[in-house]
Amino acid sequence: MSLVVVNDLSKYFGNDGDTQVHALEHVSFEIANGEYLAIMGPSGSGKSTLLAILGAMSPPSSGTLVIDQIDVYALSQEKRADFRREYLGFVFQQLQLIPYLTAVENVMLPLVVTNHKNKRELAATTLERVGLGDKLNRLPSEMSGGEQSRVAIARAVVNNPPILLADEPVGSLDSKTGEEVLGLFKQLHSEGQTIIMVTHNPESIRDAERLVQLKDGRIVADLMTKDVIPATKFL
Ligand SMILES: Nc1ncnc2c1ncn2[C@@H]1O[C@H](COP(=O)(O)OP(=O)(O)O)[C@@H](O)[C@H]1O
Ligand SMILES: [Mg+2]
């Protein structure tokens, strides 16, 4: 049984008629536990729309999303919020670190609403996991871009969510910082983390196992990257 089952998802914006945008049309695929999947496509192809639906943040116009045998959009809003917190970690292009909180305090944020004991200890252990064990008490402004990205990723996985979702995680980063982020994703994947990464940058997909390509809201390719990586070198 796949961890994620996307069945015939469509998403329309606006009312019926000429102005209605068909952001996703009849998209179906499955994601296995532990898989590292990249979703690519040109601007406007529906990547962010799909990620928002996968992230339990935006109900589809039709179709279903089943994660761990839970029909996500059949849940009440409140139950869906609980589901999101338990199952999903998010890394956004804008890191959204709180500037006046230290690294360890930023990573503790998702734990505030949980009943974890030893929140600070768990946040510290997670920062160690991403190589920032010696920077726990730094403010974001006292860290490099790559370190700030690591804090954001630590915050996304501190709860040990089964799925990590990332939207253009290296989109705005210089190449060295981008390398750090991709290296960390690779590490988390090797530790068993399921990762779904949206990107329009071919270089970002090199460690992903699988590539789903979108165009005009439809899947136009679904490939194992080991078969396509040589070709992307020429893009
Ligand atoms: N909230 C919205 N209202 C209206 N149209 C939207 C909205 N969000 C996205 N769209 C449209 O849906 C299409 C897909 O957008 P998006 O998923 O953001 O694409 P991508 O992330 O691949 O650039 C685009 O035509 C976009 O303009
Ligand atoms: Mg987008």
What does this structure look like?
The chain has about 240 residues and is α/β, with parallel strands linked by helices. It has a single domain, classed as P-loop containing nucleotide triphosphate hydrolases (Rossmann fold, 3-Layer(aba) Sandwich). The longest helix is centred in the C-terminal third of the chain and has 16 residues, at about 175-190. The protein has helices at about 45-55, 75-85, 105-110, 120-130, 145-155, 175-190, 230; strands spanning about 5-15, 20-30, 35-40, 60-65, 70, 90, 165, 195-200, 210-215, 220-225. Helix 5 (about 145-155) runs parallel beside helix 6 (about 175-190). A hairpin with a 7-residue loop joins strand 1 and strand 2. It has a six-stranded mixed β-sheet with strand order 6-7-8-3-9-10, sandwiched between helices. A four-stranded antiparallel β-sheet has the order 2-1-4-5, covered by helices on one side. The site of magnesium ion (MG) has 2 residues, from helix 1.
Chain-wise SSE layout:
Layout: E1 4-13, E2 21-31, E3 36-40, H1 47-54, E4 62-67, E5 70-71, H2 77-87, E6 88-91, H3 103-108, H4 119-129, H5 145-157, E7 163-167, H6 175-190, E8 194-198, E9 210-215, E10 218-224, H7 229-232
Parallel strand pairs: 3-8, 3-9, 6-7, 7-8
Antiparallel strand pairs: 1-2, 1-4, 4-5, 9-10
The structure holds adenosine-5'-diphosphate and magnesium ion.
